[in-house]
From TrEMBL:
Keywords: Aminotransferase, Pyridoxal phosphate, Transferase. InterPro entries: Cys/Met-Metab_PyrdxlP-dep_enz, PyrdxlP-dep_Trfase, PyrdxlP-dep_Trfase_major, PyrdxlP-dep_Trfase_small. This is Aminotransferase class I/II-fold pyridoxal phosphate-dependent enzyme. The modification N6-(pyridoxal phosphate)lysine is found at residue 204. It comes from Gelidibacter gilvus. Belongs to the trans-sulfuration enzymes family. It comes from the Bacteria.
Length: 400
């Protein structure tokens, strides 16, 4: 039977302290114990259901974690203060001095900067590879490699990772496959395809209202327990803890994710097809021209489509900037980084979200100056949006 992530979320039943239809928010940093012995046991990690201190866990954070674990089909999950809080905790937990990581070269700029500039301080080295080439990935693995890292759909080039293939490689070489699924919640379920750990920035589609940062790590009970361990757990010790009030608000937004993703995908597909027909260089995993279109189809939960992210190459940075400014003036969206908002967001990744990546490397991976990354919004009338965007492109002579 097909994996149904939204059903899994919906089937969880929560009640608040007074029978509320939403769980009560636990607004406390610390918790009382009826006996001193239970407090000791909790520190030792042996008192199930007891709360200790909110950097460790809180009822509100556990509710949200439980829903996200249900969505990804993992045993459990731990929510974090941001996506980077999730990514850095996972990598610091899995790797120590002398270890090596094989990572996709097209990843979120912050993750790239962390692996390129920060982890070498701890003698953790990373090889960046073209993740779509299995032979290249395997050739980069050394006896020191501990982690294979990628994004299901990469930022910003929308390359698609063959998670089944990468999982086979990870098993063969005894590595952990860590997948950042921020661009494709519900559409792709990496743990069902063999990923060991699935990460999201909740800041994007999952929360969807661009009012907070947040992150999650979905994985086995054993791994999440390790992350929370008071003696050597990266989540506990690095301290990227989500606040309970935020956990409660993100859980409420998660309720509509399945509807939002369908609309983002519908709108993304519509615009991608139109712009490609108009002769623009369009990258969208839903287009037959996308190099990984067939691969995406083998991995996807069909109902949620190919997502809300697409890129257009309009030829030069000047044209890209002029188009983005004009579209914002026409209220077609905002010139802003981030994604997953109800409103369309656009930015030129080469000079913003991926500026951490040196220009030569940007060129090598196909990140051109004129590239605009779009997070397509929930527009109710996407035909009108298209007509208005096209008019902007004509005005700037990007289209005839
Ligand atoms: C935004 C983003 C992150 C970082 O998440 P924050 O919540 O901003 O810390 C990581 N990975 C991807 C793919 C992202 O888009």
């Amino acid at each position: 039977m097909a994996f149904k992530p939204a059903n899994n979320i919906q089937d969880l039943q929560y009640f608040g302290e007074f029978g509320g239809v939403n769980p009560s928010i636990s607004d406390s940093s610390t918790y009382t114990f009826l006996s001193a012995k239970t407090m000791f046991d909790t520190f030792e990690g042996n008192a199930d259901g007891c709360y200790l201190y909110s950097r460790h866990s809180t009822p509100s954070n556990l509710y949200l974690g439980q829903a996200l674990a249900a969505m990804e089909g993992t045993e459990t999950a731990n929510v974090t203060a941001s996506g980077m809080g999730a990514i850095t905790s996972v990598l610091m937990q899995l790797c120590g001095a002398g270890d090596h990581i094989v990572s996709s070269r097209t990843i979120y700029g912050g993750t790239y900067a962390f692996l390129k500039n920060f982890t070498p301080r701890f003698n953790i080295e990373t090889s960046f590879v073209d993740i779509t080439k299995m032979d290249v990935v395997e050739a980069a693995i050394t006896p020191k490699t501990k982690v294979l890292y990628c994004e299901s759909v990469s930022n910003p080039l929308l390359e698609v990772a063959d998670i089944v293939g990468l999982s086979a490689l990870a098993k063969k070489h005894n590595l952990k496959l860590v997948v950042d699924n921020t661009f494709s919640p519900l559409s792709i379920s990496p743990a069902q395809l063999g990923a060991d750990v699935v990460i999201h920035s909740l800041t994007k589609f999952i929360n969807g209202s661009s009012d907070t940062v947040g992150g999650v790590i979905c994985g086995s009970q054993e791994f999440i327990d390790d992350l929370r361990n008071v003696n050597d757990g990266a989540c506990m010790l690095l301290g990227a803890t989500m606040d309970s009030l935020r956990a409660a608000s993100i859980l409420k937004n998660l309720r509509t994710l399945h509807i939002r993703m369908q609309q983002h995908s519908l709108n993304g597909m519509y615009l991608a097809e139109k712009f490609e027909k108009d002769g623009l260089k369009t990258v969208y995993p839903g287009l037959a021209s996308h190099p990984s279109h067939e691969l995406f189809k083998t991995m996807m939960n069909k109902k949620y489509g190919f997502g809300g992210m697409l890129t257009l190459d309009v030829g030069s940075l000047e044209k890209a900037n002029a188009l983005m400014e004009l579209m914002q003036k026409q209220n077609l969206g905002y010139l802003a980084v981030s994604l997953g908002f109800y409103k369309t967001l656009f930015s030129a990744p080469g000079s913003s979200t991926s500026s951490e990546i040196p220009v030569e490397e940007q060129k090598a991976m196909g990140l051109s100056d004129g590239l605009i990354r779009f997070s397509i919004g929930l527009d109710a009338d996407i035909e009108r949006t298209y007509t208005m965007m096209k008019a902007c492109m004509k005005e700037l002579k990007i289209l005839e």
